[in-house]
Fold each of these.
Amino acid sequence: GLLPLFDPPRHDTAATIEKCHEQGIEVKMITGDHLLIGKETAKMLKMGTEMYQSETLIQAKAGNKEALHGYESLLDMCE
């Protein structure tokens, strides 16, 4: 499912994401913001900072090995 988040995140967003993790739910962030803003937001929410621009994902899907950043597949990259 999808869960919309506000920018900047609400005070309880990090706790909501943590509850999802406790229930075995993986949380992924898709943003239209600049990559640096996305990374800072993810850092605030304790989601890590491994992110890719859409062009990188498109190239990885097309089979570009460099775009895979050492992963075996696009699916591995996104997990």
Amino acid sequence: ANGSSRFLGSSTSLVKERVTFAMRRSVVIAWLSIVLGLEGAAHEGAGATCDGGADESAALQISGRLASEKRQDQSAHSDEVHIVFTTDCKPYQQWEAELLFMSAQRVGQRGPITAIISGCSEERKEHIATRIASLGLPAQYTPFFVPKFNDNRSHVINKPRGVHAWFRAAGPQRDVMAVVDPDFVFLRPLTAIIDAAPALGTWSATPPTRVKKGVMVSQRWAMIANSPESDRPWVPSRGWTGLPNVTDAELLTWICSGSYTGKSACSNITEREATLYHSTGPPYIAHKADWDEWLVDAWNDITNRLHQVYDGYFVDMYGWVLAPMHHRTREVVVHNLQFFHHANYEPWYAVDAMKEDPCKDPIDDVLASPELAYFIHYCHNFDSWNKNWFNREARGLNVFEKCNATEDDIHLQHFLSHPVNITEHSDTVNKRQTFYFCIARRMFAAGFVRSCPASPASDRFRQIADGLTL
């Protein structure tokens, strides 16, 4: 999905979050030590950093060891999750799928990952299956083909429809299932452990520490509301219309329940409830029992009804938001699943504190912090990074298959001719954007080198990857 300023929310809410971040961060770090079984190591680290005789290098060594231990622990637990994502059959989304697979392999994601690919001819299915099999990926990283679901009104509705078709035909091989976007790259393994406090302190009781039946987790986006202190009734944008004689409540009731007179919590919810528990985006993580009993059907059915009255880009995301709302199920909304924007409701404090150069320094050092997000969602465009540079044609080879391409290839020259360029923002925003697009650039370059090591352009890509291998 392409980014939009709508996800930033109000400046007042962001200021409030920023003020509380430092306190919440220290609480979360202590909580993580307990959840992940690192109490002793955490205490040792605290002693080293607080000892007047300890130097910074000792503290950094301990920090590095804790990060390594956490990554190993996460890799072991990552076998608990079956990850899926959807694409259409165009070459453009196939290089995204390959890069996601490669980045997952790099961090040691052990569980199954399924690319749900829609709208392919039989010839194209064979080509893609053969291509994925040739990449040397883990055997549990596989494609699954479904019919064409996108239409003239939406090119993202294949997500709920594709996930539904796959789930009912095959289904997850693990107890926990996560839905991500194809333009994600892994920074660390995804597990069923919830290793962050709920956003804005939203959980009144003790926060859950694992995804289980009845506990679903998503990333906070200011998707539908950003008013955590308002008890006013929540109503959708009037962009969801085309039915001028229908009230907001009736429209929501029909979208969520299928009947204008049905029963649904969608039409009886406050802005506070919508903000704290339902204003979310991917990853979407839930137990397979919830997916099976209500979630996969509700997401698909609600999105299909919404699709009739709303032709905007985010129909799949709005459909997701409404499904648990209708079911009266609160999501555990966290900040730390992805880097998407430079806003303070993502875990940018780890990047703000970073001393490494994300464009040049060893990638294991750059990504060592256990407080980084799990993914970069590289859909934002900059002078130095734009995923739309790479072949948007409906047919042909994806960019990772163009191994005979030179640096003058139209699909590569934009990438290779745009050096890292910091935009005019504050130092903090510059640092965050630099991390974002340099990691995206290095990941893409490493993916091309892995796929085409002998390409005439591979030396330039190796320079950009700068030691990062996939």
